[in-house]
Structure formats: structure tokens, C-alpha cells
Design brief:
Distance between the termini: 48 Å
Structural class: alpha+beta
Largest sheet: 7 strands, mixed
Oligomer: single chain
Shape: globular
Order of helices and strands: HHHHEEHHHEEEEEEEHEEHHHH
Number of helices: 12
Number of strands: 11
Radius of gyration: 21 Å
């Protein structure tokens, strides 16, 4: 059967190395898929899957040295694409561990900090989290109230963070806090009694993932010496958003393939529902948006490998691909009719997850204003 991927001809646009990374990610995803419906239902994050990702080289995979794979950007994007085709929770894990926590240490840490933390993070023995968002901050991280004050040769941090992925199981936290010299990044050992993380319960999305409230009460932190202002934190977010551009198209592909299979096998009014024009229109329109989203993702990947990618271009990718993935999943849910709201099909789970992705790493409104500022030269924030 022709699938969304084969109709696009994606394979012909990739190198052998990129196809190999995609195949590895698909194999890991097949293992995760065995339990993901139950995991989402029961709100379980299976840490036992972390070694599968680590052994495949998918943790911090764009970075060189420290046990990281040093893969190209398109390969990393394809890994995100395959993992999110199973569930957003696992693309989120790779993103939090690699694009956020490891990226911050890799880009802004001292040699000692890199040597201490990055190798065990690449093997999955050490998990990280990235503490930026605050309960009152949301899209305005520059107004953060978390503070850091000097204490001898070190720093003491106080404050609260919210919606922090992996925090309750993390071994190390990258925390962004306000200092007399501006916002800086800090490395915190979560074993310090001043660090407390509590899982956010009763989520209706990202149920196979972990997001937390974090309290910092006199916790000791080590300054990331090369972090200079909020821009350092935003550079990590740009890295994570790039993975989202690819990842959400995996959820879109999975939804589209499920709808096509159902449309060709379910019969009403004397034939398969795929024979009806309105059904074909939904499928065709969804495929066209999927195709455009994948081509945009590949374009941004090539720009990133050429070191020409800008944050504004990533905003275009995040805004467009998340928005269109949601529309694709919604159309596919309609094709599945009443069965589309059951766990027999993953589409409703993908749709709920995509709503969460639409909110984190910058809402639609934020990315719209980023693009508007780039076009006009006028900030409307």
C-alpha cells in the first residue's frame, strides 16, 4: 500500500547515513510502540527504554565528543520524526535531554562541567532537565523571579519553575536565574536537599511523559560560565524547536496512515469509505500539508547543517508544522468517525499531544510575532 511517506518520495531526498539513522529510530520506536498506549493511559514514563535510545546514539546526537554521535541536523530531525510518530513523549525526552540540558552544558559550560556531565548523559546513565519556565512567566521568561546570589565561591538559588520535563527523575538540572549581572545559567545537582520536583498530575496530553513543578529553596548551583543573558537560554530553545519541526510531522504521518488504512478497509453504503469524494478530499488535503511540512523541515535541516539557520526560520517551521499537524490529525480523526476517539487508534492521542506541543517551546502567538518582527523590523511584543 502507498503510504504518506512513499507518496512523498522522502527516501530519495536523504543520504545513506540519514536513512540509517531513520531506520534505527524506527526500530527503537517499534519497541516503544508495544506499550505506549497503555503507558499513556496509565501515565507511565518507562525509564527502561532510555538505554535503547542511548545505545543507538540518540542522546545529544548532534554534538561532537563526550560520547555523542556528532550526527548531522537532518539525521537528528529524522530521529525526532520517527519517535514522535510513536508518541510525543519520546521525542520530548530526546529534546529535553539533548537539545536543552546537554546543549546548555555543551555550549555554555566549563571544560570540567562538560567532562563531568555530558558523557553519562550521552549514555543515559544521567538524566537532565531544563528549568526555565515559571508559574507566572510562561511566554515571558525575561521576567523570571528565580534568583541566584553569591555565596563564597558558589551560588545559592531560590525560586519556582513549572512545566519542567523530567525534573522528578533528573540527576542534573540546568536552571536559569536572575543575578545582579543579568540572567545566567546554572548546573544544579538534584540530590541537593534544596531542589524539589513534583509531577504535575491529571494531564490530558503528554501522559507518557513527565512534567513537574520545581521548587528551589537555597539550592547550590554552579555557574555556566559562558552563559550570557536570556539569549543563552533561548539558543537552547531554538535547538529544541528544530526537533519539533520534524517531530510533529511524524505524528501527522502516523495519523494519516491510520486514516488511509481505515478508509480503505471500512465499508459503508456498499463500498469502502475511501471511495467517497469527501473522504478522499480530507486525505488528499492532509497529505499535501504533510508534504509541505516535511519539505520545510528538510530545508531547515540543510540550513542548520550549513550554519545558516536563524531563530526566525525555526519559528516559521515550528508555527507552520505544529499548526498543520494538528489540522491533519483532526481531519484524520474525522475519517475514523466515532472509533477515532477510542484508544484503538493513536490519532486522538497524537491530537492531544500536539496541543501540548503547540503550547511549549513558544506558542503560536509568540512565533507569529517573531516572524512579524523579522518582516517589519518592528517588535509587537
Amino acid at each position: 500500500m502507498i503510504t504518506a511517506e512513499t507518496l512523498l518520495g522522502l527516501d530519495g531526498l536523504l543520504t545513506d547515513a540519514q536513512r540509517a539513522w531513520q531506520a534505527k529510530a524506527r526500530a527503537v520506536g517499534a519497541v516503544i510502540a508495544r506499550t505506549v498506549d497503555d503507558d499513556a493511559e496509565r501515565e507511565i514514563f518507562r525509564r527502561e527504554y532510555v538505554p535503547l535510545l542511548a545505545e543507538a546514539g540518540m542522546l545529544g546526537m548532534p554534538f561532537t565528543g563526550y560520547g555523542c554521535a556528532g550526527a548531522d541536523s537532518v539525521s537528528y530531525g529524522l530521529v525526532c520524526y520517527e519517535l514522535e510518530a510513536v508518541d510525543t513523549a519520546w521525542r520530548t525526552f530526546v529534546s529535553v535531554q539533548g537539545s536543552l540540558a546537554m546543549k546548555a552544558i555543551y555550549a555554555f559550560g566549563s571544560d570540567e562541567q562538560k567532562q563531568r556531565w555530558l558523557p553519562p548523559m550521552a549514555t543515559g546513565q544521567t538524566l537532565g532537565c531544563f528549568c526555565l519556565t515559571e508559574p507566572e512567566g510562561g511566554s515571558d521568561p525575561g521576567s523570571m523571579s528565580t534568583s541566584a546570589r553569591r555565596d563564597g565561591d558558589g551560588w545559592i538559588l531560590d525560586g519556582r519553575k513549572r512545566w519542567i520535563g523530567l525534573a522528578s527523575i533528573a540527576d542534573v538540572a540546568v536552571v536559569w536565574a536572575r543575578t545582579p549581572d543579568g540572567i545566567r545559567g546554572f548546573v544544579v545537582d538534584t540530590a541537593d536537599p534544596g531542589f524539589a520536583a513534583t509531577d504535575i498530575p491529571a494531564k490530558l496530553a503528554l501522559r507518557a511523559s513527565i512534567q513537574c513543578d520545581v521548587v528551589l529553596d537555597g539550592v547550590r548551583g554552579e555557574l555556566l560560565p559562558e552563559s550570557t543573558g536570556l539569549g543563552s537560554a533561548l539558543a537552547c530553545l531554538t535547538e529544541a524547536r528544530f526537533g519539533i519541526v520534524f517531530g510533529v510531522m511524524g505524528a501527522a504521518r502516523a495519523s494519516l496512515n491510520a486514516a488511509v488504512e481505515r478508509a480503505t478497509s471500512r465499508e459503508v453504503f456498499g463500498g469502502p469509505i475511501a471511495a467517497k469524494q469527501l473522504v478522499q478530499a480530507r486525505l488528499a488535503n492532509s497529505f499535501v500539508e504533510y508534504e509541505k511540512g516535511m519539505l520545510l523541515a528538510l530545508h531547515l535541516g540543510h540550513l542548520k547543517d550549513a550554519k545558516k539557520l536563524t531563530p526566525e526560520q525555526v519559528s516559521v517551521g515550528k508555527l507552520n508544522n505544529v499548526r498543520e499537524a494538528i489540522e491533519i490529525a483532526h481531519a484524520c480523526r474525522e475519517v475514523l468517525a466515532g472509533d477515532g476517539v477510542t484508544s484503538e487508534f493513536a490519532v486522538m492521542r497524537h491530537l492531544a499531544n500536539l496541543e501540548a506541543v503547540r503550547t511549549y517551546e513558544g506558542t503560536d502567538d509568540i512565533h507569529t510575532l517573531v516572524i512579524g518582527r523579522a518582516l517589519t523590523g518592528i517588535s509587537a511584543f
